From TrEMBL, chains A, B:
Gene3D superfamilies: 3.50.30.30, Zn peptidases. It comes from Nemorincola caseinilytica. PANTHER family: CARBOXYPEPTIDASE Q (PTHR12053:SF3), PROTEASE FAMILY M28 PLASMA GLUTAMATE CARBOXYPEPTIDASE-RELATED (PTHR12053). Residues 258-447 form the Peptidase M28 domain. It is found in: Endoplasmic reticulum; Golgi apparatus; Lysosome; Secreted. Keywords: Carboxypeptidase, Endoplasmic reticulum, Glycoprotein, Golgi apparatus, Hydrolase, Lysosome, Metal-binding, Metalloprotease, Protease, Secreted, Signal, Zinc, Zymogen. Homodimer. The monomeric form is inactive while the homodimer is active. This is Carboxypeptidase Q. InterPro entries: CPQ, PA_dom_sf, Peptidase_M28. Pfam families: Peptidase_M28 (PF04389).
Length: 457, 457
C-alpha cells in the first residue's frame, strides 16, 4: 500500500513535471516560430505602405478590409469572413491654424480633433485666452472668455512611469474642452496635444459634443513646441488665432466590416477564444502602432499556431475590428453577433497599446480566473512578461465583456514611446521594431495556447 | 513589561513602515526629478551632434573629454577631474569591399573590424569561400581555402529572447575569424555582421590577432542584406571579392582621460559608489546607445541627487571611462588608481547596454550581497524594474571587480533594439527615446540612494 501510494505520488509528480515541461516546450516552439519565421512585420509593412492610414468610412478603410481578408487567408485560417458593421464617417477636409504671436499671423502644425465640427471652411479669428485647467477656465469672468479662442494648456504629465496614466490624466482636455468652453460663450478651442513627444507633432483623437449643447465649437490640437511658443507669447501679452477648418461628421453611416479568421477547435469548437486589434486608424500617419501592430499580431497568432501544427481544443479567432477610434461600432457588432448566435466565448485578448516589447498581460475577469492565469506566470517570464496585476482589456472587446461577461485580457507592452507617436503623422512603420512586434505576437499566441490547454473556468 | 514589549513592537513596526515609506518617497522624488527636469537627453544631443563618434585616441575623443568635464561641472559635482589613461589608436582610413556576384564588381556597404590590419590600401582580390561555421571551415580541404577570402556566414540567432544571448553566441565570428582562417592559409575574411537588423548596416566592433600568428588577415563585416545576397550568389557558383583597406593599429599609445565627477559623502566619504558608462565609441554613427547613453545617465545621477538636495553618506562618483571598445585601458586605470590609493569601493554600477527602458539590475557579487539588494526589489517594481536574477556588470568596472573584489552591478535595459544599431552608422541620437533614457538614469540613481541608505555589507 505504501509502495502504491509512493508510486502514485511519483507518477503525479512526473505528470506535473511533464505538463510543465510540455507547456515550456510549446511556449518555446511558439516563440521560435514567430521570432524566426514570423510574417507580422512584413504584413505591417504592406498595410502601412500600401494602405496607409484608414479612418472608418474612407476608401482606405475598405482597402484595409481587403488587405486583412487576404492576410488572414495567407496565414492559413480555416475560415475567413467579413462581418458587417455600419460606421460613422468623419471628414477632415482642409484646415489651418494661424497664430499671431508677435506682429503677423503664421501657420503652425495643427490637427482638428476627430468628430469635431470645423469653421465651415471660413476663417474664424479671435483673441486667445490661455488656461492651465478646466478649473482655471471656470474661474475667469465670462466677459474675458466670451467670443475668445480658449487655449487649454494642460501638460501631459511626464512623471507617470506608465505613460497610459498620463494619458488618462490629460485626455479629458481633448474629449471635453469644447463643451466646457461653449458653456461660457467661447468661440473655439485649441489644446496642447496628448503627447509625451519632444517635438511639434500635433496629436489628433476623438472628442465629443454633449447632446444638450446647441453650440459645437471647433477644436484643434497643437504639438508641444508650438504649445510652448504659444504659452510664452500668452504670458507676454495679447495673442490671436485664426482657425479655418472644413471638418464635419457626415450624416450617413457607411457600410464596413470586421475581418475574422479562425482555426476550428478539435474537441470543443463551440468554445471560442478571440484575439484582436483594430483595423481602422486616424487619418494621419500610417496607424502603425495604433493599431496595425495589434492586427498583424492577431493574424500572426493564427499563422504561428498553424505552422507548428498545433490543434487547439477550442476555436481560435483573430478579429480585425473596424471603428475603434471614433465609435467602436465593430466591437459592438461582434458582441451583438456573439449574443445573437449564443456563442460561447472563453476569453477575448486585445493588443491595442502599440507594437512594443511586451511586459505584461492585463486581466479583466473574476479573481478566480485571474488566479488561474497567474499560476502560469513563470512560463511567461523567459519572454520578459512579468506583470499580471493590472486590469486591462481593450476597447474593441469591451462590449463582449460588458454585454456577454466574457473575460478579457490585454497585451501590455512597454509604454514609454507610445504617446510620442499616438495619433500623429509620425505613427509610421519605421517606428515599429521587428523583434518587439514579434515578441508581442508570441506572448499572445502563448496565452491562447495556455487557455486552450488549461481552460479558464 | 508586556506593555513595553508591545510598545517596542509597535515602535519597530512603525520604524520599518517609516523606513519603507521614506525609501518609496525618495525613489519617487528621484524619478520625478529626472522624468520632469532631467538633462540627460539634452546632454546626449550635444554629445552626439557636436562631438559625434569618438574612437579612442582620436581628436573627437579628446573633444568628448572636454564635453564630459563641462557636463559634469554643470551637473553640480563637488569635484571634477581627469584621470590619465594611455589608449591605443586604431586608424580606419579609406576602405572598400567590392563583390562580383554576377559579371562585374560592385561596391557594397562594409566596415573593417576594429583593431584589424587592412590590405595596406592596395586591392586584394580572391575567390570567396562561404562557410556557416568554424567547424565547417575546418572540415574543408586546405587547397580549397588557401589564398581565398573566407565568408563566415554565421547568422545572429534571432530566437534568443534576450538579444545579448544572440550576441554572445555569434561574436566569436567577429573576434576570432582571422585567426581561424589564417591557420589554413586564407587571404582575408568577410563576416556577416553581429546584427539583428533587417537592413544593410555593417556592424564594426573589436577583433584580435593571436600573438602566435605571424599573419594578420584583413577582416570586414557586411550587413544582413548584402550577406543574404552573397550567400545566394555563393550557392549558385563562383564569387570573388576585392578588399581594399588602409586600417591599422598605430604603434604609439595616445594620452587620454577618464572623466570623473563626485559628490562627497557626508558621513563616510572614504567609501565610494561608482556609476559609469564609457565615453569612447566606435568610429561610425554617434555612439548614442553605445555608450553616450551610459555617460549622460551617470552624469544625471549626480545632477538629480544634487537637485533634490540629497546628502549621501558615501561618496558618489560618476565616471566616463575611456577606451572600453578596444582596450579597456580606462577601466584598468581606474581600478589601478583605486588599488594604489587604497580606496574603499562599496559597489560599481555600469550602464552599457543601451538607453532603453530598464528591466533589471544585474548583480555580480556574493550571494549575501545579492540577497541584501533583492530585499528591496519591490521598491523598483513601480519603475518597471523586476529582474535581479542575472549576473551582469560592465566591461569598464570589471577590473575593479577582478582586482579589487568590488561588487558590481549593471543596468539591464530592454534588449530588443540594441543589436539593430550597435556599432553601426545608425547608432545616432534619434534612436534614443527621452523617456526610456531618463527612466534608466532614475533607476541608477535609486540604486545609488539605496546603497547609501542601507549599505552593502
Amino acid at each position: 500500500m505504501k509502495r502504491t501510494t509512493l508510486s502514485i505520488a511519483i507518477c503525479l509528480a512526473a505528470m506535473t513535471g511533464y505538463g510543465q515541461t510540455q507547456d515550456s516546450i510549446m511556449f518555446r516552439r511558439i516563440s521560435d516560430e514567430i521570432l524566426l519565421h514570423g510574417t507580422c512585420y512584413e504584413n505591417l509593412r504592406v498595410l502601412c505602405k500600401t494602405v496607409g492610414h484608414r479612418l472608418s468610412g474612407t476608401p482606405a478603410a475598405a482597402k484595409a478590409v481587403t488587405w486583412g481578408e487576404k492576410a488572414m487567408k495567407e496565414a492559413g485560417a480555416d475560415k475567413v469572413w467579413l462581418q458587417k458593421v455600419n460606421v460613422p464617417y468623419w471628414y477632415r477636409g482642409k484646415e489651418s491654424l494661424e497664430l499671431r504671436l508677435n506682429g503677423s499671423y503664421k501657420k503652425v502644425p495643427a490637427l482638428s480633433l476627430g468628430n469635431s465640427e470645423g469653421t465651415g471652411g471660413k476663417p474664424m479669428e479671435a483673441q486667445v485666452v490661455m488656461v492651465g485647467s478646466f478649473d482655471e477656465y471656470k474661474a475667469l469672468p465670462e466677459k474675458d472668455v466670451k467670443g475668445k479662442i480658449v487655449f487649454f494648456n494642460y501638460r501631459f504629465r511626464q512623471d507617470f512611469v506608465n505613460s497610459f496614466d498620463g494619458y488618462g490624466d490629460a485626455v479629458a482636455y481633448r474629449w471635453n474642452s469644447p463643451n466646457v468652453a461653449a458653456k461660457r460663450g467661447a468661440a473655439g478651442v485649441i489644446i496642447r496635444s496628448m503627447s509625451t513627444g519632444m517635438d511639434d507633432h500635433p496629436h489628433t483623437g476623438s472628442m465629443h459634443y454633449e447632446d444638450s449643447l446647441a453650440v459645437k465649437l471647433p477644436e484643434m490640437a497643437i504639438g508641444n513646441e508650438t504649445a510652448d511658443a504659444l504659452e510664452a507669447a500668452c504670458k507676454k501679452g495679447a495673442v490671436s488665432a485664426r482657425m479655418t477648418s472644413e471638418c464635419h461628421m457626415m450624416k450617413d453611416m457607411v457600410p464596413s466590416f470586421n475581418v475574422i479568421g479562425e482555426i476550428k477547435g478539435t474537441e470543443q469548437p463551440e468554445r471560442i477564444i478571440t484575439v484582436g486589434g483594430h483595423l481602422d486608424s486616424w487619418d494621419v500617419g500610417e496607424g502603425a502602432h495604433d493599431d496595425g501592430a495589434g492586427c498583424v499580431q492577431s493574424i500572426e497568432v493564427i499563422r504561428a499556431l498553424k505552422a507548428i501544427g498545433y490543434r487547439p481544443r477550442y476555436t481560435i479567432r483573430a478579429v480585425l475590428f473596424m471603428n475603434e477610434e471614433n465609435g467602436n461600432k465593430g466591437g459592438h457588432a461582434y458582441a451583438d453577433s456573439a449574443v445573437a448566435r449564443k456563442e460561447q466565448h472563453v476569453v477575448a485578448f486585445e493588443s491595442d497599446a502599440g507594437g512594443f516589447s511586451p511586459r505584461g498581460i492585463g486581466l479583466e475577469m473574476s479573481e478566480a480566473k485571474k488566479n488561474h492565469i497567474r499560476q502560469y506566470k513563470h512560463l511567461f517570464l523567459p519572454y520578459n512578461v512579468y506583470d499580471f496585476d493590472h486590469e486591462e482589456g481593450g476597447v474593441d472587446i469591451s462590449p463582449l465583456y460588458h454585454k456577454h461577461k466574457v473575460p478579457m485580457a490585454g497585451l501590455m507592452p512597454d509604454s514609454q514611446r507610445y504617446f510620442d507617436v499616438h495619433h500623429t503623422p509620425n505613427d509610421v512603420f519605421e517606428q515599429v521594431n521587428h523583434r518587439e512586434l514579434k515578441l508581442g505576437a508570441a506572448v499572445m499566441a502563448q496565452f491562447v495556447y495556455l487557455v486552450c490547454e488549461h481552460g479558464l473556468e
